[in-house]
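Now read the record:
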Amino acid sequence: MRTKDELFRAAQREVAAYRQQAVMQAETARRAAYAAHPALAEADSAHLRAGLGLAKAAALGGNMDTARAALARAEEALAAAVREAGFSADDFKPAYRCPLCEDTGMRGGVPCRCVADAARRLRRDEINAASPLGLCQFASFEVERYSDAVEPELGISPREYMGKLLNYCRGYAAKFSQNSPNLLFMGHTGLGKTHLALAIADAVLEGGHDVLYTSAAALAAQLGREHFNYTTNDEWLAACQEADLLILDDLGTEYITPLTISVLYELINTRMLTHRPTIYTTNITDQSVFVARYTEKVASRMLGGCKMFKFFGTDQRLK
């Protein structure tokens, strides 16, 4: 996973590569046309000489009016040669992907929106590589799969309950900000916890926020490697700490060590202090198990700082 800065720099490099490609393609087309039409090449050379003549007149105090008139005639001759060869002036201009900044990545002294679009796509690719993000959207969450029989613990059916939870998650994603609450989705395997978490991630990412997804097991393993490799500078931890929204999936599957507990505490505490929301999913439904597994210090921050939702029903994957 890359930090925001790393992702932004990667997006800038991508946009710069687009510009270089567009310029090279335009130059290739121009050279091919000039090779096929010598008169066009000569007209272009005459236009270049006239431009240099105007610059020389301005620098050495020559006759500017004469030089301007020569340049105007050369421009008309070049335009006529282009038409006679069957081309238009646009045929030799670079075809930039972004017409706003012409693939420079900057517009009005600030980064162009094409850079943000590229960064968002690169982040989406990262999440897709680690999860089924492309399959997990609100529209594909089927509440009809849940039982319509009343669940005693709920007082309503799982179908009605999950419909309400789906609507809550839609609203959460639509109004997402740094003041959004942390969420904890708990319940047995295959009840849609990861699906809804990723659906939120997809919508929040589309809204222009930076989102990171990782399983707890992958995070713990990577942070363990980084901790003993002093050349990496804990890049995963930095990326997780600064993301606008972090999805930490499958808590309880990671290998617990004192290092894991220490890093989790640092991550959770930092995100709480900087008001960066986190969505946790877990198969653990007993809060006492959380305390025993993660220590009271970590569990209290995780459970006390979250809006908790317990998922009900039967394994939807088996269905």
